[in-house]
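Researcher: Please predict.
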Amino acid sequence: MPQRLWKRCMEFKMKTETGKFETYYIDKKTGTAHKGACSEQFQTFLNEGTLLVKNNESLNNLPPVPGLLSYREDNKILYVNKGNIWDAIGSKKEIQNLEKNINVEFQNLKDRLKKIEGRFNEITRKSCKAILAANTFAISGIYSIRPAAGKLFQVYCDMETHGGGWTLVYSYTFTNYNSFTSGSNAVTPRPNWPAWRANVPISTTPPLSESSLGAVDWNLWKNIGKVLMVKSNINDWIVCQPNGGSLVTKTRASMSCQNIKNVATACSGVAPKIIYWSYYGPVLSGPSAFYYFDGNTDTNYPTHDPCGKK
């Protein structure tokens, strides 16, 4: 329960009907106002402290001094004078609830600041995986990365699939999807990876969504990461760890791959075992082509076979 904080005389002035100001002081024992100034033995403090009253009648007997605080014992509510009325500030329970709500909002603000800090820090990260490691609140979307000195650009980050942290480095379509096994069918566009007989357009423009087309400069892929994930709407999704072979360094050898989502109806759970390079683009094989990124419209076709067979 609040106690009177003032131990000296409280003095104030009120304007009369004639427009003059008259001085009053409050008796520190009774809390009642009296005309006149504080005696010289007291130091004057204007509107200092909180007055303790028993009930509403006692409250209304107090002088109407704006800003004056009073606490009623009967209902345990603190009031502030607003000139002609006493306005309830709140009960102890209400004040406690307000304090609780303020603490919750403060924590929410701290969480939001943490997210903002993560977004600011992302410009120094080299990949979506590094962004997610620095900011576990990160969600899928467009971020800025710096995989190499002087190479700051935007990419799309998948922060959900298979643990998240995937940088979209390549998104493609087909030149003749309706005649899929025709020699005129190829993936397009293609990254600037080694494929000297490929003839589809090259892209070095990062795709900023999974539905847009393009590719990050292949020379930067090795700085972004070595683990490969392929998502498709016609073939199973796979994740491949280097096991001698690598897509980012053009190394023909085995890879440790797993099937993370069955999209096709045949050969459930099959995954590639090796990677090699043809004149037209890389091939993930197991034992035959599983994913063939054929970039030539004159021969072959871009195999997407869940059974790893042509």
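Model: The mean pLDDT is 85.
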